[in-house]
């Protein structure tokens, strides 16, 4: 099949959307491919077969996801989609799958090949996870989505609702949820080793792309590369003239496109604590300290306090987040060496400093304190003397039956259940989204989980909805 360079004119794009994405009060949209009024039937994958996988975002992290899914031997790559098709960062995947159909617009991909697709991987910038996942789910396609699920609190809420409405398999890409830390944390909570936690310190102090940046507005217009469909790259975001400072990972620096250090690493550092301590949503989020506040890019450093209420018999918890190279948390004297998972990928700029500033956490429970790292790294009891005392009292920890990618594909085949479905990952990502709002307004926020409103700050409450979608992209928000 020839490369697809569709949607060259705004008129054609609008005509397609009117025909394919019909908005309604009760449904997200009704694409003309497969959907009846209540959505397409869920794609059924024979237990003996491979999952027909379409891949959105094929360079950088998206390319790594594709290769990991393919390496399981359970995926048949049937379509590749990238707004910058043919750019240098996409070539390794194109060379790996030279005969697979290629698209620059995910909507055209689903229109042309929807019946051949059973699942989708989404490895695009944070802000564009949402429309791709929403369309895929409405068509009955299973979704593997990089973290964070969506960019705004509202997007994440709609993604959770859509996953439930269309009854599809979902998995967010916080790989530690299929590694040792996940099974250890669960076993230690079940056995009462981790109990009555009241305080968590989480930190990510490595350099980020926006560190050292000073901006007084958005970036000046530059010529759009020939390989890039800039209009489609923008997706639901408001229009910005192209600048290379927005693409290939630099999008993470900007409130309009990314989720900063918290959205990037929070899901790898305190995800298991959030799930197994049943933390849910906080009732208060405070910007305790911000260095280099900007309305455009993320702070140079920030300290955020998330306060979670009592949950049944579980006591209130305060989780404090630290980012910024010099914004180091206060750690117990017995902390010792950091816990480092050797499989942690490098951040979007630079490398993990495993000697001075590795990401990690300290968890303060009843009678015991734990230190941990990121991703799948296991917890350690501190001080060492206490760890030795507890050695014979620790429960056995099951081995992971499948890595995160295999877990997703086996779940598509009905053989497992995903360990980080949108129903689990959603409240975690919404917690981070609330922290990003606090960074954006540099304030202490009171949040009501029942009404999903920030009750003491009008501007912050409006930011829960995220950046308003561009014309012709509103349909993705209607469910």
How is the topology of this model organized?
Blueprint: H1 10-20, E1 51-56, H2 60-71, E2 75-81, H3 91-96, E3 102-103, H4 106-113, E4 119-122, H5 129-138, E5 142-145, H6 153-166, E6 170-172, H7 180-190, E7 199-204, H8 230-234, H9 260-269, H10 271-276, E8 284-291, E9 301-308, E10 317-323, E11 360-364, E12 369-372, E13 380-382, H11 384-390, H12 404-412, H13 422-441, E14 444-448, E15 453-454, H14 458-463
Parallel strand pairs: 1-2, 1-4, 2-3, 4-5, 5-6, 7-10
Antiparallel strand pairs: 7-11, 8-9, 8-14, 9-10, 11-12, 12-13, 14-15
Percent in helix: 25-40%
CATH architecture assignment of the largest domain = 2-Layer Sandwich
Strand segment tally: 15
Strand order of the largest sheet: 13-12-11-7-10-9-8-14-15
Number of helices: 14
Estimated structural class: alpha/beta
Low-confidence stretches: 1-37
Could you tell me the mean pLDDT?
Answer: 90
Please report the distance between the alpha carbons of the first and last residues.
34 Å
Largest sheet: 9 strands, mixed
Percent strand equals: 15-25%
Which class of the largest domain in CATH terms? Alpha Beta
> What is the overall silhouette?
globular
CATH fold-level label of the largest domain: Dihydrodipicolinate Reductase, domain 2
Task: Describe this entry's structure for a reader.
It is built from 14 helices and 15 strands. It has 479 residues and is of the alpha/beta class. The two termini are 34 Å apart. The protein has two domains: 10-176 and 467-477, 3-Layer(aba) Sandwich (Rossmann fold), CATH 3.40.50.720; 184-395 and 437-463, Dihydrodipicolinate Reductase, domain 2 (2-Layer Sandwich), CATH 3.30.360.
